[in-house]
Amino acid sequence: MPKKTLTERCQPFTRYIEGIKAQGFYPYFRPISRSWGTEVEVAGKRLIMIGSNDYLGLSHDPRVLEAASQALRRWGSGPGGSRFLSGNLSLHEELEERLAAFVGKKRAVLHVTGFSTNLGAIACLLTAQDTILCDRENHASILEGCQASKARLIPFAHNDPKAAAEKLHQAREKYPNGIMLLITEGVFSMSGDLSLLPGLVALKRTFPDLLVYLDDAHGIGVMGYQGRGTATHFGLTDQVDFIMGTFSKALASIGGFIASDDIDVLEYLRHHSKPLIFSAGLPASCTATVMTCLDIIEHEPERVNRLWEITRKVHAGYQEIGLRTGEPVSPVLPIHIGSEIKAGLFAADLFKNGVFALPAVFPAVPRNKAVIRTAYMSTHQESQIDYVLEVMSKLATKHGVLASDLEERGYFANASGFSSPGPGVSDQAISQIGK
Ligand SMILES: Cc1ncc(COP(=O)(O)O)c(C=O)c1O
């Protein structure tokens, strides 16, 4: 094969994207010029936002904005360095204590994003002697952490404790030594599925040394008593060894954390997680935002209740239209479309009709299992939801994406929604099994 320059290597992809743009349905990187929370402005057009993870609508709460601006004035706009060196704010440590208590663990460690929390934590805690059991739909940041750790990666069928048990038995027999870590999401980011956590932690009865790592990016602030997350929802906090969360969803900011009762492990992590040591700390404004969001979530349970009301209403609306969607077990309600091009065209038509939602395509979901990922906020008004449902109904028929249309095209042949290989754990990762 003739040697290619870097430009030549990238060009086929770039041309492909240009082709989609020329056809007018490239939906990504849309510049939002203004946001009111449930509505945004793009290219001078006001749209109802149904694709945000700001589940509780806190990013525009006046108390949050005030706390962020006070912190900005007190600590400045950036921390000026890594937390390890000159950028460790007292507010970071306060938030760590607060988060640990919130999720029911002894200690928590902050990172600058959720992605870098998974990447840094998994990579620094596991080694080539260890084995990771990973749900096939786990997020890309988890996979990056697994790959960076060099541990053996064993994917198991999505949300299937029985499949996990089989893989675990095989792995323990083959690799009797080394740490065994099972990683699952609490609420899966694309399908909105709720983890079958009880079945997964039950594996600890057979394998007492099994460690369980829960990425609760989409569960924190939403699931369980006072939004304390999926482990609280199931009453299994003490069975989960690591709870990871992000601030980029219900906590209306950016940043991430990992919490555990194992103080030694977290102290080690604080000194070895590369994104923590070699990235600057979280800006004070983001940190104060999260503190205030926690106050609000703890004191205003009606926000979470309203989110569930809206989620159930939308789910019922989708069903009435005849769309194929997930169960209302989380605020993430994907609309199954299948064809990636159809999903792009559908999203473009939503846009024309004043609705902002985006297609999720491979590798975020398996090939030809494209969805329009919708997620609503507790601040959406009834009139906004009614309007969106009206638009969905009109467009679903126009584009032929009703559940009955999908059935005709054989969409459900091998899956109840998403099928393997899962979005996060790709073929490439699977090929590493047993390395
Ligand atoms: C399950 C899951 N984990 C981790 C992340 C990364 O979070 P962040 O946006 O804070 O980097 C995301 C973000 O989409 C996610 O969905």
Question: What do you see in this structure?
Answer:
The chain is of the alpha/beta class. The protein has 2 domains: 27-56 and 301-401, Aspartate Aminotransferase, domain 1, CATH 3.90.1150; 62-298 and 424-430, Aspartate Aminotransferase, domain 2, CATH 3.40.640. It is built from 17 helices and 14 strands. Strand 2 and strand 3 (45-49) form a beta hairpin. The site of pyridoxal-5'-phosphate has 15 residues, from helix 4.
List the helices and strands and how they pair.
Blueprint: H1 6-22, E1 32-35, E2 39-42, E3 45-49, H2 62-75, H3 90-103, E4 107-111, H4 114-125, E5 131-135, H5 140-149, E6 152-156, H6 161-174, E7 180-185, H7 197-201, H8 203-206, E8 211-215, H9 230-234, E9 242-246, E10 256-260, H10 263-272, H11 274-277, H12 284-299, H13 301-321, E11 332-338, H14 340-352, E12 355-356, E13 358-360, E14 370-375, H15 382-399, H16 403-408, H17 427-430
Pyridoxal-5'-phosphate (PLP) binds next to α4.
